[in-house]
Amino acid sequence: MMGFIVKLFVCPLTVFFSDLIFPNVDYTAFYQPIIVGLILAVSAHMMEVLLLKRGTFWTSTILDFMAATLIVYFVSLFQVATVTFFGAVLTAILLTMTEIVQHRWLINTGKTQKSPA
């Protein structure tokens, strides 16, 4: 659960930051990167719950990168927002760097252990 709470803050901030630094990522309203970031946070958390465990670090990280690229590109279809595919890739790279830190933390602290049902 702590990983999800972290994602709720990190993902929107990362998308907002990519809007500031990349010329091919342009959100015209303040709420647009927040919405995209929240969608990314929920999807990344669900992927972690399903996939992340000891031994699947890189697989989970690569799948997070691919999913983030597609989500940023296709969810950013707001009326006046402009995100190119390359801008989506750059944003996904930033998101993946944050995911690497979070995945290592979750694996090293044992927070990826699934409890027996």
Explain this structure:
With 117 residues, the protein is mainly alpha-helical. The protein has one domain (2-108). The protein has four helices and two strands, in the order αβααβα. The chain has helices spanning 2-21, 31-51, 57-75, 85-108; strands at 25-26, 82-83. Strands 1-2 form a two-stranded antiparallel sheet. α1 packs across α2, α1 (2-21) packs antiparallel against α4 (85-108) and α3 (57-75) runs antiparallel to α4 (85-108). The longest helix is centred in the last third of the chain and has 24 residues, at 85-108. The radius of gyration is 14 Å and the shape is elongated. It starts with a helix and ends in a 9-residue tail after the last helix.
**Regions with little confidence, pLDDT below 50 for 5+ residues:** none
Helical run tally: 4
Which sheet architecture does the biggest sheet show? 2 strands, antiparallel
Strand content: under 5%
Round the Cα radius of gyration to an integer and report it.
14 Å
Helix content: over 70%
Total number of beta strands: 2
Tags for this entry?
4 helices; elongated; mainly alpha; 117 residues; two-stranded antiparallel ribbon; 3% strand; single chain
